[in-house]
Design brief:
Blueprint: H1 3-14, H2 21-33, H3 37-43, H4 53-61, H5 66-70, E1 72-75, E2 78-81, H6 94-103, E3 111-115, H7 121-129, E4 134-139, H8 142-155, E5 160-163, E6 178-183, H9 196-199, H10 215-220, E7 228-237, H11 243-252, E8 256-261, E9 267-273
Parallel strand pairs: 3-4, 3-6, 4-5, 6-7
Antiparallel strand pairs: 1-2, 7-9, 8-9
Helix pairs in contact: 1-2, 2-3, 2-4, 6-7
């Protein structure tokens, strides 16, 4: 059997469990061959099927995410290592970086903080945009912290990843204030109907936040004013039904709020700032 034939067969089998069956098959084949997907399509279609490919397909048939099978996921142009210890970075989360980039179009954040950094995706994207900024990622899971640290060594060696948990007293006492605070906290309702690839494989502590998905926002947002510099902003990811609730929490904490949509037009991030920062959405920092 050639690679092309194996891809057709795998696509037919995966169609029962994946909406991206052909793409999944190609990514898994490229991984088994140790080449890029482009090289696969251009140079390997008539070659022999590598012996490990069948086992990879079986794992995907069991709803294991492709990113966990291959151990990598792209985010904002960065090839990140991922494992079941961390949430798989989604393209929709790039909205936070795009919105921050717009906010700091005429300035440079000097200090950046990522709360619950997971794989390090948000912090490392920011650190590559603003390499001169001090970049700190906080993570409570030791296994996730190890993944983020490894990604940091590859993409932004100056970034710091440290243990921290915003639900504990005095967790931020020694951190100081930041021009940009990023966070993609857990925001899924405990009883949400999730795909098996998500509920059965991705870390629950990075997904679920109580019956209404707001528990972590309630704990985190009141602490944001104490983390922001005078002209700082926070960019917080939300679920698409949570706009009003999260904006209300921001306003209760004395913060102004601005909504950003993802490329699909869904509510995706809330930008927060001290009301004294008159240029919400257009940060005014001194380099």
């Amino acid at each position: 059997m050639t690679v092309a034939q194996a891809l057709r067969d795998a696509t037919a089998r995966l169609a029962a469990t994946s909406d991206t069956a052909r793409l999944d098959a190609e990514v898994l084949m490229a991984h088994a061959l140790g080449c890029t997907r482009s090289d696969l399509l251009l140079r390997h279609m008539t070659g022999e099927v590598p012996p490990g490919f069948a086992a990879l397909v079986e794992r995907r048939l069991g709803h294991e995410p492709v990113a966990y099978i291959t151990g990598s996921q792209e985010f904002y142009g960065l090839d990140l290592t991922v494992s079941p210890a961390v949430l798989i970075p989604r393209g929709d989360s790039e909205t936070l970086i795009d919105a921050a980039r717009e906010a700091f179009a005429d300035a440079t954040p000097q200090r950046v903080l990522d709360l619950g950094t997971g794989s390090g995706a948000l912090l490392l994207a920011a650190a590559t945009l603003w390499p001169q900024a001090e970049a700190i990622g906080i993570e409570r899971s030791p296994d996730a912290l190890a993944v983020a640290t490894a990604n940091g060594r590859r993409h932004a060696p100056h970034a710091q990843f440290i243990a921290g948990d915003w639900t504990l007293p005095n967790w931020s006492a020694a951190l100081g204030r930041f021009d940009l605070v990023l966070a993609n906290p857990p925001y899924v309702e405990d009883a949400a109907d999730l795909a098996p690839s998500v509920r059965a494989h991705e870390p629950a502590q990075a997904l679920f936040a109580g019956p209404d998905g707001l528990d972590d926002y309630r704990a985190l947002i009141p602490q944001i004013p104490g983390l922001l510099s005078v002209c700082g902003i926070a960019m917080i990811e939300i679920g698409w039904t949570q706009t009003e609730a999260v904006i209300a929490l921001a306003q209760a904490a004395g913060l102004t709020a601005k909504l950003h949509h993802d490329l699909g037009g869904r509510p995706r991030a809330i930008e927060m700032a001290d009301p004294r920062n008159k240029a919400l959405g257009k940060a005014d920092l001194r380099d």
